Amino acid sequence: MTTRTFRITVRGAFDALTDAQRAALLADATEHDLLRAAFTPEGNLTYDIAARPAFVFRFSATGEKEEDILEATEQAEETAKAWLTERGYGYKHLRSTAEDLSQAPLGKRQRRAARSAGA
Questions:
Q1: CA distance linking residue 85 with residue 53, whole number of Å
Q2: What's 35's DSSP letter?
Q3: Residue 4 in 3-state DSSP?
Q4: What is d(CA 73, CA 69) in angstroms, rounded to the nearest whole number?
Q5: DSSP secondary structure code for residue 32 in this structure
């Protein structure tokens, strides 16, 4: 059986932040800048608290079967909730999307490489 790679995105918004929490998020903003976004097993958080209270966690996971994406998505949500809760950050509107990269359509370069390999 082949290993499947999943990309999971957990989105939400900070809720009822105190001035101290907002200041802490602003102080750490460079670590969580969109330019540093990556899908990682432990999760990668990005936000721009100065612009809006939204945040995005990006996770990568693997599985053997197509159904494993459901468990991976649930685990990603729980990890995001735990990170927020441990720091005392309120949140709302949490929602997740997941993609099985084995099912993703090939990009232009990938199609070209596949044709070259087959020729």
A1: 16
A2: G
A3: strand
A4: 6
A5: G
DSSP letter (8 states) at residue 103: G
- In this structure, the dihedral spanned by the alpha carbons of residues 24, 26, 28 and 33, taken in order and rounded to 10 degrees, is 150
Q: What is the pLDDT of residues 38-65, one digit of tens each?
A: 999 999 999 999 999 999 999 999 999 9
Residue 9: Cβ within 10 Å count: 16
pTM for the whole structure: 0.85
d(CA 16, CA 79): 21
Tokens of 99: 């993609």
Q: Please name the residue that has the structure tokens 């950050």.
A: 89
DSSP string, 58-92: EEEEEESSTTHHHHHHHHHHHHHHHHHHHTT-EEE
41 close to 60: Cβ distance less than 8 angstroms: yes
Sheet containing 54-63, strands listed edge to edge, beginning at the edge strand earlier in sequence:
44-47, 54-63, 4-15, 90-100
